[in-house]
Amino acid sequence: MSKAKRRVVGAGLPRTGTSSLAFALEILGYDRVLHSHCGNALSDLVCPDADALELQKQSGVSLEELTSSWDATLDSPTADFYAEMSELFPGSAVILTVRDSDQQWWASWYRTLGVFFGSDWRGRLLRLFLWMDWGSHERNDMISHFTHLWRSKYGSYGPDIHTHHNLEVQRRISPERLLVFNVKQGWEPLCRFLGEDVPLRPFPRM
């Protein structure tokens, strides 16, 4: 990554356009973009909302060691550590990806991943199938922890998680370091925030 580029810390929830943002950053010249679970020790976290000390206990290395070699980190599990990472890398730019509405985010989350975490018959049935599948106990543990932690953190498990999370990020990160970004806005706000020229190619839609 060029020294002129600012490290990017993603703070957006899953299913908020983080894949499109990852591809956009690569187009802008970010060489090492860590998106979601991509083969480092963070992938082994059972508890996705663990704090930095718990992460070090589970993985044996610090959050800084796990993330310092990346130019940008997006989506869970790294986004769960956005506040700690913004302190570890004080010159970083924090990008909070958002959807148009809580309902739009929830529909996208629930039809892809969220159904596994639900308390309705579909969620319970899917978790039962995972439990019956040999070797799926770790996935069941992750689902259990995710459900418990989101409910305890946000007070519910539903569309309003989107608003609660976004407001929390905006309270914790200073405005001059934070871009609240809907990927449908395209290149202009992103490039202005990062100090980059707008590419000639269309903004990626993943």
UniProtKB/TrEMBL annotation:
Specify the superkingdom: Eukaryota
Entries under InterPro entries matching the protein: P-loop_NTPase (IPR027417), Sulfotransfer_4 (IPR040632)
Q: What is this protein called?
A: P-loop containing nucleoside triphosphate hydrolase protein
Q: Which organism is it from?
A: Periconia macrospinosa
The opening ranks of the lineage are:
Eukaryota, Fungi, Dikarya, Ascomycota, Pezizomycotina
